[in-house]
Structures are given as structure tokens and as C-alpha cells.
Amino acid sequence: MHGPELSPSTIAVAAGRPARVPGGPLNAPITLASALVPGGGSEYGRQGNPTWDSFETVLGALEGGRALAFSSGVAASAALFDLVPIGAAVVAPRHAYYGTIAQLVERDRRGQVQLRLVDIDDTAQVIAACEGAALVWIESPTNPSLEIADIEVIARAATQAGAAVAVDNTFATPLRQKPLDLGADFVVHSASKLLAGHSDLILGAVVTNDDRAFRAIEKRRTVLGAIPGAMETWLAARGIRTLHVRLDRAEANAKELHRRLSASPRISHSRYPGFGTIIAFEVVAGPAAAQKMTEQSDIITYATSLGGVESTWERRRRHPGEPTSVPEGLIRLSVGIEDVEDLWLDIQNVLAAVA
């Protein structure tokens, strides 16, 4: 493949395919093996699996680096946090994925890191917090408040301060944002979400364009055993093949729903960053009405996950670990690829029922 001149949509379809040989498969086969014959890249299943290669190749090509698959997004972030020196400072968003913040809070409690929480959309505040830090963790857009970070400016300041920069790119995907090109050292994904796109697997990934960093992360994966399954990586690679068409459709739906929600007198503070498939909004009638709304919809599924072909939503503060700065009545809506008029009718019906 001649990656640089290819569009992302072509890379998503073409990268990570097997060599074209007579009688060979079009797709990478699923290798179900715990041990491999010595002499190749690996000889034990914890070190590598040929099925991982397809997923890692296509994601790496899309992000502009080299990818490593992990058993989950949390496992991917944990491998990165393991590289932080004991007692060093980590800067992270106040609003971020709960699994990420929970890890950092626990490590802070044990004295493993010094956690500095910031408002990631306050660039001056983030830059000030970079001084003396070992790692700056960026989530943009944030979950669930959808704040946007100035990745390029923060990455430049963090690098000057001697800190590494990692960006959770789950919401944006490499089709809307390429953090490595903006100065980040690492990109992290919950590949369970938009990348795979069908709510049928748990998978994570780390991408970097630094060979030394790649080897360090690869070692953490092997030592900790946070490896993905062959079936999961095969499904995720298949999911990426349609990422561009799924994202385009769901994003168009999200933009239209945000426009209509913003005009509804029953909705307040509709949040949308201008790209992606996630909307967050509050129900004027209050948290109880918001909870009932998510439970009574016919088409939109009441579920905590996101990024699939189906639309899902939930009231985020139903989770005890969600920050108290997240409004009690905030609903996070992950918009899918259904017909937008059907989605809007579903929202109108439940709004009318709970108002």
C-alpha cells in the first residue's frame, strides 16, 4: 500500500489485508492458537497472534503510527500509566471516561502518581499543570461533557515541560482527529466503540510513532498479559472497514438531532462539539424525568455503551463514580445510523410522556 497518498476511507478498507497470492484469502484468517512454531515473530500466544496484525496494521495506518491491541481500553490505558515513574504527576481532565479516572484516583491514593485534575478546555490551566508532570492525559471530546482540548498547543507545552502526551481518541476516531500529527506521543482507543462499531466486543489499543515507546508498551502488554483475543481483533478489523460510512451517517444524524434538541423548549444545554456521534443534553423537567426518558424509548436503547450502529443513551449520574460537576439530568446520547426522523419521533414521544 502507498499510504501517504491514499484517503482515510481507502486505508480503512485496504490496509491490513493478506498478501495477494493465488488461492489466498481476501481477509486475514482467524488464528486460534496458544502456541506458534518457533522461528517467526512470536512462538507463544501472549507474545503475538497473526490475527492481531490485521487490526493493528489498519489502525496504525489511520493514526499515522504503530498500533498495539489490548484486551480492553482500560487495559490499554493501564499499560501507559505503568510507564509513569512512581510518585510522578499526571495531568488529566476533570471530566473523562470513568474507567480512566478511577485508575488514576486509585494510583494517586496508593502514592503511585500525583493526580492533577484540570478543565481540559481551559488551555492556560492545563499548561500550568504541565510543569513537573510526567504524563498529560487528554480526552477530546470529553466524556460525557464534550469539552474540546487544544491538543496541539497543550502537546507543545507539555513536551517543553518534559511530559509525555497521550490522547484518548475514542470519540473522534482518526477520521476526525489525528493526535500524533498534533504532537501527541500516544493515542489510546476503546476499540469496542466506533472503531469496531457493532457493540459485540471488548478491545483497546495504543498507537505511537516512537519506536522506543512502542517497545515499552509492547513489553507491558506481554508482561501483564493484557492481550486481546483473536476473534475480537478479527471483528474489530472487519468493523474498521466500514468506519467511514458509519461515521458519516451517524454524524449527520447527530448534527440534525442536536439542531432540533437545541430548539426544543423541553431540553436545555444541548452539547455537540461539531463532529462525531455523541450528543449530551439536559431535560428541563429534571433528573427523574431524564431517567424515565431513557428507560421508555422504543428505538434508542437504554445502555451505557456507545459508538455502535444502534443509538443508545443513559443518564450519566446514575453511575456513583460520575463527577458531581456533571449535571444530575444530563443524558449522553450515542447516535447511530437509523433514520433520523425515526430517532426524532422516538425522542419526541418520550419527552411528551415524561414532561
From TrEMBL:
Cofactors (names): pyridoxal 5'-phosphate
GO terms for MF: transaminase activity
InterPro entries, per database record: Cys/Met-Metab_PyrdxlP-dep_enz, PyrdxlP-dep_Trfase, PyrdxlP-dep_Trfase_major, PyrdxlP-dep_Trfase_small
Pfam family, one: Cys_Met_Meta_PP
Range of residues in the leader sequence: none
Keywords, in A-Z order: Aminotransferase, Pyridoxal phosphate, Transferase
Domain of life where this protein originates: Bacteria
Entry keyword Transferase: yes
Family from the record: Belongs to the trans-sulfuration enzymes family.
Protein name, per record: PLP-dependent aspartate aminotransferase family protein
